[in-house]
Amino acid sequence: MLKISAALATHNEEKNITDCLKSVQGLVDEIVVVDGNSSDKTAEIARSFGAKITQIPNDPMFHNMKQKAFDLATGDWILYLDADERVSGKLGEEIKMVITMDNTRVDEYQKGLKDKDLFLKHQKILELRDGQIGNGTDEYVAFFFPRLNYFLGKYLRFGGAYPDGVIRLFKKGKAYLPCKDIHEQMVVDGKVGWLQNELLHISDPTFGRYMERNSRYINLIADELRRGKVGKNPWQLLNFFFVKPIWWFLLTQIRHKGVLDGLQGIIFSFFSALRFPRAYFRYLRSKGEIKVLP
């Protein structure tokens, strides 16, 4: 019988962790949580679900904590989740089914996915940015999940927000996070497939939650600018304050039809575009290490 481990990295997620862990009850055989010394009840709640807790200082590069959770997991397969993600019943059944398939059956299953063309188009975009994902071996060792992102009362399906493919299921020892930057893709030693059913991401139910997460993300982008030694000059000022945000807003609203998500889609595109000037402004103000700014 194949064993599945749920692996999470958390920091002050008491509002999310319960629903996340409820969604994998009956699906996984163990829950491994690496917690960044949460000051709330995150660890206590996780323990009530029988989770194995390891508490360490919170790491702003969250991938380090995620990778530690992967290393501590003992299952044959690892289901990697964030605390604000939920596994639906249909996705759970699909996970249990696909890990029992041999490679021939997985190949056939991939051909029959109803959104196969959309998924492969999305994967191609990721590979243009990140390089090839997986290798040409015959063994399927990891799977993308299409992810539905919840923003201010609505799941976004346009504006480039869907399928938002994320590798969330992989064989133990066959994938890892390089832990170098926030945009990185998992490194996979084997073939990568897709599952059809969506992973629900309750990312931004309120605008305050969105701005809090967005601010942390912008700090990491500013840190990348510093490490990449991006110039502090008039051209870069023009690029980050005007060219990039206008290009991004038009791309997501027109080419990717973000306007079809209504007001939420417009707001999401607008504030997503604002990450460029906000990150560059924080970079301009920084000296040495990036500090968290309001």
UniProtKB/TrEMBL annotation:
Gene3D superfamilies: Spore Coat Polysaccharide Biosynthesis Protein SpsA, Chain A. Residues 6-89 form the Glycosyltransferase 2-like domain. Transmembrane segments: none annotated. It comes from the Bacteria. It holds the Pfam family Glycos_transf_2. PANTHER family: GLYCOSYLTRANSFERASE, POLY-BETA-1,6-N-ACETYL-D-GLUCOSAMINE SYNTHASE. This is Glycosyltransferase 2-like domain-containing protein. It comes from Candidatus Daviesbacteria bacterium RIFCSPHIGHO2_12_FULL_43_11.
